Amino acid sequence: MQNLANRLQLRDFRLVQAIADTGQLALAAERLAVTQPAASRLLARLESVIGAPLFIRHPKGMTPTPIGETLARNANSLLRSLDQTLNETGAAVSGRAGTVRVGSVTGGAVGFVVPAVQNLKKITSGADIHVDVAPSDVLINGLLHGEYDFVLSRIPAGTDPRQFSVKRGRVEVIRILVRRDHPLTRFGPLKPKYLEGWEWVIQAPHTPMRQAVEEVFYSSGISLPSEIVNTTSLLVMIGYLASTDAIAPITREVADLVAPDGSEGRFVALDLEEPIIINPYHLISLKTHTLSPLAIRLRDLIFEGFSTS
Question: What is the distance in angstroms between the CA of the first residue and the CA of the last residue of the chain?
Answer without folding.
Answer: 63
